[in-house]
Amino acid sequence: MNRSSVIAVAVCAVVVFSLVLSHYDFTHAANTSVTVLSYSSYYTGNFIIVGEVQNTGSHALESVSLNIVVSASDGTQIAAGTTNAGANEFLPQQKAPFYIDLGKINSDTLSKVSTFNISVSNAPPTNYNQYQDLSLNVDFNGIVNDVYVVSGSITNTGNQTANNIKIYGTYYNSAGVVVAVGLFVLKDPLTPKTSASFTVDEFDASPHLVNKISNYALLVQTSTQIFATPSAPSTTSPSDSPQSSDISWLIFGVVGVVAIVFGVGLLVYFRKRKH
Q1: Residue 130 near residue 221 (C-beta atoms within 8 A)
Q2: What phi-psi label fits residue 45: left (phi over 0), alpha (psi between -120 and 50 degrees) or beta?
Q3: Integer angstrom CA distances of residue 82 from 45, 67, 119, 180, 262
Q4: Which residues, other chains included, contact 114 with Cβ-Cβ below 8 Å and sequence gap of 6+?
Q5: Residues in a beta bridge with 118
Q6: If we measure between CA atoms, which residue out of 183, 179, 185 comes closest to residue 169?
Q7: What is the distance in angstroms between the CA of the first residue and the CA of the last residue of the chain?
Q8: Nearest to 86 by CA among 188, 176, 184, 14
Q9: CB of 39 within 8 A of CB of 49?
Q10: Which of 15, 61, 191, 232 is the most exposed place for a label (fewest CB within 10 A)?
Q11: Cα→Cα distances 94→59, 85, 87, 250, Å
Q12: How far apart, in whole angstroms, are the C-alpha atoms of residue 246 and residue 124?
């Protein structure tokens, strides 16, 4: 076997190996579906949009970024902005509020508002979950001085310290549409087996806004993370599993390439011995 033949065989081996690798899917994209459940707007001198999203996928999301465009009936863009939903390590089926201040809009322009386009711009998957051992106890909810107040205590029932705790309030009207959002930030870390009080009320509180509220939901967030426990292995027979089949292809391909390279090496070796 001459030098050009050896090179040709080696090239064939590389091609075969590349085809095998391309058959195997090395990246398993998570289902990162995010659904906008409801939204509404109000005017405080600034144009505000509030709403709620849900992780309708099967994997936790690191965060959710939203693009919001407000347009007139003729398609002219009136305002636009980007905001994040109030959740990190966003679990499947979990809901989270969002809030965006689009700045000042004059009354003439405000009357032309016709359509809202709210789209998810980024929602990367994550293998981390938030520390889950935080429980809320609500002592009071209702209107106080034209503000809808939800107050109570939060308890760390686990064995880790919870840092940077935030409690979001999502406020709904009688039709279940989000009409306001609020936030409480706990200043100090919450150590295991301890409690702290909280009070959440809506941003931009006003008599007009508070009279729309008929229900609420609370969402606890913390920067303390835990690594997500891998899901239980499938009971499907390995011979029936597509992933197992792909791995078999990979193994056979690697073995085949090694055999080709080994064979070429032997031929070159014996060729040299004859000379």
Answers
A1: yes
A2: left
A3: 19, 5, 10, 18, 58
A4: 71, 72, 73
A5: 68
A6: 183
A7: 12
A8: 184
A9: yes
A10: 232
A11: 11, 12, 9, 38
A12: 26
Is residue 67 a contact partner of residue 227, using CB atoms and an 8 Å limit?
no
The span from the CA of 195 to the CA of 187, in Å, is: 13
One-letter amino acid of 134? L
Give the max Cα distance, the chain: 102
| Residue pLDDT, tens place only, 84-101 | 999 999 999 999 999 999
pLDDT for 126-172, tens place per residue?
999 999 999 999 999 999 999 999 999 999 999 999 999 999 999 99
Short-list 42, 196, 206, 60, CA closest to 124: 60
Which tens digit of pLDDT belongs to each residue from 178-206? 999 999 999 999 999 999 999 999 999 99
Among residues 53, 28, 40, 29, the alpha carbon closest in space to that of 168 is found at 53
Does this model's pTM top 0.90? My answer is: no
CATH of domain 131-223: 2.60.40.10
d(CA 205, CA 182): 9
Domain boundaries, the chain: 131-223
Please name the residues in contact with 252: beta carbons below 8 A apart, sequence gap of 6 or more. 20
- With a CB cutoff of 8 Å and minimum separation 6, the contacts of 196 are 153, 154, 186, 188, 190
